[in-house]
Amino acid sequence: MILGCMRLGGTDEAAQARAFAAFDAALETGITMFDHADIYGEGQPERHFGEWLRQRPGIRERITIQTKCGIRPGLYDFSPEHIEKAVTGCLERMGIDMIDLLLLHRPDPLMEPHQVGSCLNTLHESGLVGAFGVSNMNAAQIRLLQHFLSTPLRVNQLELSLAKLDWLNEGIHVNQAAGRNVHFADGVIEYCQLHDIQLQAWAPLAYGWFSGQPPEHPSPAWQATAQRVEEMAAAKSTSREAIVLGWLMRHPAAIQPVIGTTHPDRIRACGPAAEVAAAMTREDWYSLFIAARGEALP
Ligand SMILES: NC(=O)c1ccc[n+]([C@@H]2O[C@H](COP(=O)([O-])OP(=O)(O)OC[C@H]3O[C@@H](n4cnc5c(N)ncnc54)[C@H](OP(=O)(O)O)[C@@H]3O)[C@@H](O)[C@H]2O)c1
Q: In angstroms, what is the span from residue 108 Cα to ligand 1's centroid?
């Protein structure tokens, strides 16, 4: 699992204490990877993270730092000038010498692939970035970018959860009229599996909708899913968070959830998710999938 740091911004002392508590809770839970982006909270989560690292000597060597760039307020920007500036900013805010993993945040239609490739290759050769990945990209976009890169793309981060099921519905609706209403990049899960590109799930807790924070207007399917999550958590003596994440991690693609909760107790509640996934039966997995779909399988 990865701790997503998007919501750990804010400039005052209380905000910093809140961020530190989340980082500490993650480490206690065995989470050693942290997900940032230059755009999150105008750089504040990265600044808090840098200060946290300064106050916890020896931790940098034990953790993996991932950040993203390519989004500017109101537009996307994969120009080499922007990427280089973004990398410098991330390194400075976190007070580190190298970003372990740099992801391109959202596809930029104006991307010049040979320029991006040459920029990323230079960042890698200069030791400023250890490896690269993407986020919210389809297989063709990944293939195009990879063609101009001298190192393999390692990660694709997508929204995957019990509330966002198109990644599974795409596969089960082949040859079905219902497939017309499925909105997901065709074949990207399989492409990443085939090319050893680690899939990461953003918003894997589905904003808490099935684990204690129902949406304002829940559908009957989502109410039934929350109910099912609660029953399974009680039956397995675990947390609802572990069920929601365990369901995602049960998928053979070995998806890494990027959890966005800022609450130390909820971070700890996510801890048993891998164990839950390993023990989740096919029947349990399908019962959650079908409840969240709100209709039987085709
Ligand atoms: N690549 C991308 O385009 C992209 C886009 C969005 C996010 N991300 C990454 O993914 C991470 C996770 O995304 P996310 O934070 O949007 O989604 P998430 O992990 O599904 O949900 C976290 C949110 O749900 C709330 N929540 C969860 N369980 C709750 C409960 N039982 N009761 C009340 N509130 C509950 C959390 O509040 P509390 O903090 O109070 O627990 C928090 O606001 C981000 O931090 C970021 O790193 C990436």
A: 24
